[in-house]
Design goal:
106 residues; two-stranded antiparallel ribbon
Length: 106
């Protein structure tokens, strides 16, 4: 190895800004997905870093493929909003509280 060459024993890492540019989204979105543990990452100090395998995994996570059953349907008929679910979390039923005025008089 020459004095001017770097050792390539460690894989290169990418910043959230580089990942955002590759995905066509904002740096904030990439950091938020990492913070919520929706995409793989390495925590380096106080920042997020991504390896090539992380980037490939992120592309697979975000990839959408057409359903074989719905292939013949026209996509223009869909007017509903698309939702993406990353994890199968249990659904928590929320209950409304009594108004503050009703709590203090009762």
């Amino acid at each position: 190895m020459n004095a001017g060459q770097k050792s390539n024993t460690l894989p290169p890492t990418y910043s959230p800004a580089e990942i955002a540019e590759a995905l066509g989204c904002s740096e904030w979105w990439v950091k938020e997905q990492a913070r919520r543990r929706r995409i793989p990452f390495i925590r380096s100090g106080s920042g997020y870093r991504f390896t090539r395998s992380h980037v490939e995994d992120i592309f697979h996570i975000l990839e959408e493929r057409p359903d074989q059953e719905n292939k013949s349907e026209d996509r223009a008929t869909s007017t509903g909003r698309r939702t993406v679910t990353f994890f199968d979390a249990p659904v928590v039923q929320l209950r409304a509280r009594r108004p503050r005025r009703a709590r203090t008089t009762a």
